Amino acid sequence: MALMTRRELNRATLARQLLLARSDLPIVQAVEHLAGLQAQTPHSWYAGLAARLADVRPEQISALLEGRELVRIALMRGTIHLVSARDCLWMRPLIQPVMDRTLFSNHTHGKPIEGLDTDEVVAVARPLLEEAPRTSNDLGALLAEHGESAGWGDRPPASLAYIARNMMALVQVPPRGLWGRSGPIAHTTAESWLGEPLAADASLDDLVLRYLAAFGPATVKDVQTWAGLTRLGEVVDRLRPRLVTFTGEDGRELFDLPDAPRPGADVPAPPRLLYDFDNLLLSHADRTRVITEEHRAQDYTTRRPVPGWVLVDGFTGGEWAIESDRDSAVLTIRTFAPPADGLHEEGERLLAFTHAGIAHREVRVERL
User: Distances in Å between the alpha carbon of 273 and those of 88, 278, 291, 312, 319?
Assistant: First the structure.
């Protein structure tokens, strides 16, 4: 098998993630190409599309959420992702084992729901959620009220709502997540919101192939890290005749699609500003294809709020944050090494996207 260096892995992944050159893909098609975006925060993920698409405005993305062409739903690893309506209907059933696994292992809700007939709770919750989108507090209260006569009225309302959250495909409905607006976290079923049933024949083969198209070349463990699923080695083995393989610098076997882009290690990677939970940094078991030792040394796992990330020559090279009020917006980019060419212009582009209506916009680039 051909050797693939860390830098070649980096360039291949950036190409799949539309980070070597901004794309002209329509927004929904781009989200599908990326296999979704992690989107547990209401708005920071908008910057992920700004970094990847040539001509996009936040209002356009927001309109697609309102129009139900895009949805935010608990998906990969049980975290909220932005996906297309089409992908939601077939991807969500495949991730159900992740949701089942975390249902009783949750440190807050696991013990309070032990011994409960969760199917019975779901049967009660479904019509309530399809009647109207409901917050967890509202749903939990209604389920607890019903439980008084059903024999589980002593269970915590929040834990009853958590059963519905894990065992049903629930989308977060607008105005939550809309640009320039927000609202309480309210859910309804994906089937009700989208007017179609979940796919009954969804294939793990398709999920793995979509992952490789968006994040490859990759190991089996990389795929499992992204999805939160286990035993995907069986799926990759089944797909092996349709894939090409490489050996990483660490000796591990990497799988990829034959016709996927794999640019050379010397292809330029322009500066990019990624959002706080960008998929590029979270979707591999071995993240050294993007994350540097300087990045690790900052111990960002303990930082709150989490900053945005700076890519320099394709690798994590610093952090960024925006401070704003009604009259001004200041983007500060802080780098591990002397600032690279193009960072200021990239910052100006991001501010024009996030704060288009503010006259005074300033970009500061400094050394960490």
Answer: 27, 10, 14, 9, 8
Strand, coil or helix: 337: coil
Helix, strand or coil for residue 7?
Answer: helix
Q: What's the CA gap between 40 and 21, in Å, rounded?
A: 26
Determine contact, residues 347/363, Cβ cutoff 8 Å: yes
Strand order in the sheet with 328-335: 272-274, 308-312, 315-324, 328-335, 360-367
Distance CA 103, CA 49 (A): 32
Rg, the chain, Cα only: 22
Cα 246 from chain centroid (whole Å): 27
Tens digit of pLDDT for each residue in 199-244?
A: 999 999 999 999 999 999 999 999 999 999 999 999 999 999 999 9
Cis peptide before 112 (omega within 30 of 0): no
Output b/e per residue, 309-342; b: 16+ Cβ within 10 A. Answer: bbbbebbbbbbbebeeeeeebbbbbbbbeebbee
pLDDT digits (tens, 9 = 90+) for 117-168: 999 999 999 999 999 999 999 999 999 999 888 888 899 999 999 999 999 9
pTM score > 0.85 for this model?
A: yes
State the first-to-last Cα distance of the chain, in angstroms, to the nearest integer. Answer: 41
Taking residue 115's Cβ as centre, other Cβ atoms within 10 Å add up to 6
